[in-house]
Amino acid sequence: MTAVHDLLLMLLVLLAVPVAAVSLYLLLATLLSGRPVPTLAPQPAALRQRRFDVIVPAHDEAAVITDVVASLRRLDWPADCFRIWVIADNCRDATAALARAAGAEVQERSHPTLRGKGHALAWTFEASRLRGWAEAVVVVDADSAVSPNLLAAFSARIGQGAGAMQAHHRVLNPQASWRTRLMAIAMTAIHQVRSRGRERLGLSCGIRGNGWCVTHRVLLQVPYCAYSLAEDIEYGITLGLAGQRVFYVDEAAVAGLMVSSERAARSQRERWEQGRWQLVRSRTTTLLRAAPGAGGRVCLDLALDLLVPPLSQVAVGIVLLIGLAGLASLLDAALLTWLWVGLACGACLMLYVLRGWQLSGVGWRGLVDLLRAPFFVVWKLALLLRARGSGVWVRTRREHS
Asked: What are the C-alpha distances in Å from 16 to residues 7, 318, 340, 346, 347?
C-alpha cells in the first residue's frame, strides 16, 4: 500500500500543481474584473486634432467590406483627422472597387510569396510612416464594426502617454448560434475579464488582432515584423520585450464576425491553435529570461498568459484531477485533501466562465448553452489531436460570401 500511496501522491502532485496555478490565475483575473477600467474624460474640441490612419487589411472580403467602411465613417472624430485605408491584399474579387465606392482610400497590394495579414500590415505601416500624415495607425478587421468612440478613446490614452492600445474585442453576431454564444462568452473572458485585471495591475493586455492602435513613435522603436499565424500575439510580445505595455481601452469596442458552422469554425480554430502553440514554443523561454530585468513583470505576465492553455484543456485537467483524487481517496483516505483541491479548481474555473457570461450580454440563452460546453470541449480536443499545421495562413471562409 505504501508504494501505491506514493505513486498516487506523485501523480496527484504532477497534475494538481499546474491545474491549481492556472485556476488561481483565472480567479485573480475574475476578482480584478469587478469594476470597469476607468474611462478618461472626453477631450475638448480644441484637442481633437490627432490624426489616425485606420487600416483595414482585406483579402477577398467583397461580402463584408462595405459594412466595415460604413461603420468607420460613423466614427465620432473630425473627418479631416482620420483616413480609412483599405489594403486589398492579393485580392481576386471586387474588394477594392467596393471599398472605393463606399468612401475608403484603397491601396492594392500583390505579392506572390509574402502573403498573409502580417506582411500586409508591415507594408502598410511603412507606407503610413512615409506619408508623414498620421500620428498613429489603427487596425480593424474587414468583418467588423466599431464603436463610434474608438478614436476618441485611443486619442485620450495617447494624451496620457500610451503608445500601444487595445480596445475591447467582442463578437458581432453572438446570437447567430449556440457556437457563437459560447465564443462570445469565451472571448469576453479572455479579452475583457483578463484584460481588466492586467490593466489594473499595470501589465500589458497584449494585442488581440482587431481594434488595436500603435503610434508611429512606438513603431520606430519597435518595428512591426510579426508574420506568424498569431501575428497579433507575436507583436504584443515583441512590444513587451521592448519595454512597451499595451494599454487596455475598456470603453471602446470592435466587434468581429464569428463563424457559426462547424466546418468554418474548425478551420479558424485550427489556425488559432497552431499560431498560439508556435509562440509557446518560440517565445516562452525568451519572456521568462527577461522577467528579472527592468519591466520584467510585464514579460512574466505575458509568459504566464501564453502558458495558460485554452479553457477546454483547463477543464479536462480539472476533471482528471477530481477523478484521480476521488479514486485515490477510496484507496487511501489520507489523499482526500486532493479531491478538495480539484473541486476548488473547478469552482475557480466556473466563476471565471460565469463572469465571462455576465459581461458578454448573451443572456439566458448563453447560460443554457454552457450545458453544451462538454461537447464543445471534446470537439476542440479532437481538433488538437488531429491538427497537422502547415504554418501557412488560410483565410476563414465567410459564411454569407
From this structure: 14, 8, 11, 12, 14
